[in-house]
């Protein structure tokens, strides 16, 4: 299993009451907030770095969304997709805002997401990833990043990694220390992603797609996909 293979099956993040950090580490990280240096993050990254990983920027190109201003909101028109409209299962109609057809035509070349891309939230609730399967007539907001795959990487597998503890622990460390949570593009680029063989990624991706298609059993199938990913990583590591 994934968490067992990378030494995280029994991993319980815990807050240390006190700990010592070298000044050189503070300078190199360009961070002085205590949360960033919580030992739980270093322990977690040690486990991740024992595996074959790549930085997110090696796997995708990133493009930030656009903020037209609330004065451009319409009661109808083309979708303006904000952070609150993104879930790991798909786009949701939550306080949906719209833009005029004219503004949409101006912006769609640069800011309309395409099927096969991953929509990733970076503000407010950072780290929600959705692999877009459907065509969308709309524009993404500035709090969302479009990830376009550079190589043979299964999009659903990558989104699952980001949505799992693999991504969330790294996001918690990077985005902590502020009242308003932001995950900076430079931090997003450095997210470490475990790399599996393409057939294994495909199998996991197929399970995730089934989970999205079956609305009533979506959560159950997503958990199955996670378990399958854990078991396949274990088998892969055992046969290396």
Task: Sketch the topology as an H/E string, one letter per element.
Answer: HHHEHEEEEEHEEEEHHHEHH
Number of helices: 10
Shape: globular
Secondary structural class: alpha+beta
Taking pLDDT < 50 over at least 5 consecutive residues as the criterion, the unreliable ranges are: none
Task: Give the strand content.
Answer: 15-25%
How does the major sheet shape up? Answer: 4 strands, antiparallel
Structural account:
The protein has 240 residues and is an alpha+beta fold. It has two domains: 2-6 and 31-59 and 152-238, no CATH class; 61-149, Adenine-n6-DNA-methyltransferase TaqI, Chain A, domain 2. Helix content is 41%, strand content 16%. The strands form four sheets. Strands 2-10-7-8 form a four-stranded antiparallel β-sheet. The protein has a three-stranded mixed β-sheet with strand order 6-3-9, with helices on one face. Strands 1-11 form a two-stranded antiparallel ribbon. α6 (155-163) crosses α9. The mean pLDDT is 84.
Can I get a quick summary?
The chain has helices at 2-5, 23-29, 39-49, 56-59, 101-111, 155-163, 165-175, 185-189, 198-213, 218-238; strands at 53-55, 60-64, 78-81, 86-87, 90-91, 97-99, 118-121, 129-131, 138-140, 144-149, 192-194.
Key phrases:
10 helices, single chain, globular, alpha+beta, 3-stranded mixed β-sheet, 2 domains, 240 residues, 11 strands, Adenine-n6-DNA-methyltransferase TaqI, Chain A, domain 2, 4-stranded antiparallel β-sheet
């Amino acid at each position: 299993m994934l968490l067992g293979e990378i030494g995280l099956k029994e991993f319980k993040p815990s807050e240390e009451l006190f700990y010592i950090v070298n000044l050189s580490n503070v300078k190199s990280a360009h961070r002085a907030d205590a949360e960033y240096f919580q030992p739980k993050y270093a322990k977690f990254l040690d486990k991740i770095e024992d595996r074959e990983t790549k930085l997110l920027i090696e796997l995708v190109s990133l493009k930030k969304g656009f903020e037209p201003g609330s004065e451009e909101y319409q009661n109808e028109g083309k979708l303006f997709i904000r952070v609150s409209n993104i879930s790991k299962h798909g786009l949701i109609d939550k306080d949906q805002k719209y833009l005029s057809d004219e503004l949409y035509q101006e912006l769609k070349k640069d800011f309309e997401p395409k099927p096969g891309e991953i929509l990733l939230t970076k503000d407010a609730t950072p780290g929600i990833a959705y692999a877009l399967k459907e065509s969308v007539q709309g524009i993404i907001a500035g709090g969302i990043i479009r990830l376009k795959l550079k190589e043979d990487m299964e999009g659903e597998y990558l989104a699952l990694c980001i949505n799992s503890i693999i991504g969330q622990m790294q996001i918690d460390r990077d985005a902590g220390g502020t009242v308003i949570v932001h995950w900076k593009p430079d931090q997003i680029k450095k997210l470490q992603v475990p790399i599996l063989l393409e057939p294994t990624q495909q199998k996991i991706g197929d399970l995730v797609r089934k989970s999205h298609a079956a609305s009533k059993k979506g959560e159950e199938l997503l958990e199955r996909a996670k378990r399958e990913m854990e078991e396949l990583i274990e088998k892969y590591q055992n046969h290396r």
